[in-house]
Amino acid sequence: MLTIVYFAWVRERIGLDEEQMARPDAGTTIADLIALLAARGGGYADALGDATRLRAALDQRFMALDTPIGDARELALFPPVTGG
Amino acid sequence: MLTIVYFAWVRERIGLDEEQMARPDAGTTIADLIALLAARGGGYADALGDATRLRAALDQRFMALDTPIGDARELALFPPVTGG
Amino acid sequence: MKRVAVQAGDFDVAAELVALEALGGGGVASFTGVVRGGGGLIALELEHYPAMTQAQVDRICDEAMARWPLLGLSVIHRFGRLEPGARIVFVGTASRHRTAALESCAFLIDWLKSEAPFWKKEHFEGGATGWVEARVEDETKAKGWG
Amino acid sequence: MKRVAVQAGDFDVAAELVALEALGGGGVASFTGVVRGGGGLIALELEHYPAMTQAQVDRICDEAMARWPLLGLSVIHRFGRLEPGARIVFVGTASRHRTAALESCAFLIDWLKSEAPFWKKEHFEGGATGWVEARVEDETKAKGWG
């Protein structure tokens, strides 16, 4: 299984902090998965419809959206960070 | 009268914090006055013999050594500052 | 000395600075970020990614220690609900060289802005809310360190 | 807020920072210089030019306030005999922009090094003493601000 965690307005629009899904093929990229999730419509489409507004981390490391998910256990999707 | 004040090793070598002297001609530069004082020999020569090691202020403002003394009331002679 | 804290509570800037001064380095630089008021803002809510935050801030600190000759550094980042005037973030660095202390402090705060997994939501009078947008300038600034 | 103090006694860094944070600017940067020990140093003696110091530090502060959008700054410089570990100088700046706070802090400390009329004499174990030489690097750095 792959755990997906959401933060900030991505979390709010989807209405979930996290969820589990069946592990996709190792070659599936983060962007592929975002497109799959957005296709669910509703809050998913609102949150994930425009991938250019999203950033991601695989197993707690920032990764470009064209990175394959490989054997990562946790994918995080969120807007650009605004700390500091 | 012109007051001359000395700081740091300039003060130590001359052995005076300050002294008064008759006001020189307005066109006399700081460098001219340094040369005059150094010519007194002894501690003055030790302190003021090498003008490249000295900095100066006229009436509490840093000035280049080729500045005429003009009608300033206080000349300060000292090594480059080391604050901060 | 490397001290990293991610916490909800406030912190004691003086205690951090005294610890850095005690390293005997000669120079201690610091930056403290405070919630700015105005525009009807009543609170800033900082969300973060707990599993990632501490490790990521730690990594940024290691990067700073590799780049500058630091004797120590301290980074504290708060999360949760913060009102105007409250401290959000503290970065302190100690070095024998004042330039190293000041530059690494600037580097750390720039990197926290673009590399630490925090998100800020503004709460206004009347109930309106909005997520703070990342500024392109911040990503550019962090990248400027190469 | 512009606070300039030239004094023999120690100062309270926390109080200075709290005053700067209270200006509501969002960012407060600081630099504290501390007497470095080692090499048998037992004390640093700071001589200054009293008639000039306060006015000159004031002028450097005005220069910083003209160059950066600062809400406030605080500069404290001690004179007299200071032992290793003692604070010598403090510079604190507050601004809405973190870069302005950090850059003006660096500017102020660079300028104090080359434009404030202080001289440092080192006292070593055994009675040896020596005046600290100005570093060409410091004059160059101050000039770098243009």
Automatic annotation (TrEMBL), chains A, B:
Tell me the CDD domains matching this sequence. Ubl_MoaD
Q: Which InterPro entries match?
A: Beta-grasp_dom_sf (IPR012675), Mopterin_synth/thiamin_S_b (IPR016155), ThiS/MoaD-like (IPR003749)
Pfam families named in the record: ThiS
> So which residues are the signal peptide here?
none
Q: Which domain of life is it from?
A: Bacteria
What protein is this chain from? Molybdenum cofactor biosynthesis protein MoaD
Q: Tell me what organism the protein belongs to.
A: Sphingobium indicum BiD32
Lineage, top ranks: Bacteria, Pseudomonadati, Pseudomonadota, Alphaproteobacteria, Sphingomonadales
Automatic annotation (TrEMBL), chains C, D:
Which EC main class describes this enzyme?
A: transferase
Q: In which pathway does it act?
A: Cofactor biosynthesis; molybdopterin biosynthesis
Quote the catalytic activity from the record.
Answer: 2 [molybdopterin-synthase sulfur-carrier protein]-C-terminal-Gly-aminoethanethioate + cyclic pyranopterin phosphate + H2O = molybdopterin + 2 [molybdopterin-synthase sulfur-carrier protein]-C-terminal Gly-Gly + 2 H(+)
Q: What Pfam families does this protein's entry cite? A: MoaE
Listed A to Z, the keywords are: Molybdenum cofactor biosynthesis
Enzyme nomenclature, EC number: 2.8.1.12
Record InterPro entries: MoaE_sf, Mopterin_biosynth_MoaE
Give GO terms for biological process: Mo-molybdopterin cofactor biosynthetic process
Question: Which terms in the Gene Ontology molecular function aspect does this entry carry?
Answer: molybdopterin synthase activity
> Subunit arrangement?
Heterotetramer of 2 MoaD subunits and 2 MoaE subunits. Also stable as homodimer. The enzyme changes between these two forms during catalysis.
Q: What does this protein do?
A: Converts molybdopterin precursor Z into molybdopterin. This requires the incorporation of two sulfur atoms into precursor Z to generate a dithiolene group. The sulfur is provided by MoaD.
**Similarity comment: family membership:** Belongs to the MoaE family.
> PANTHER family annotated for this entry?
MOLYBDOPTERIN SYNTHASE RELATED
Q: What is this protein called?
A: Molybdopterin synthase catalytic subunit
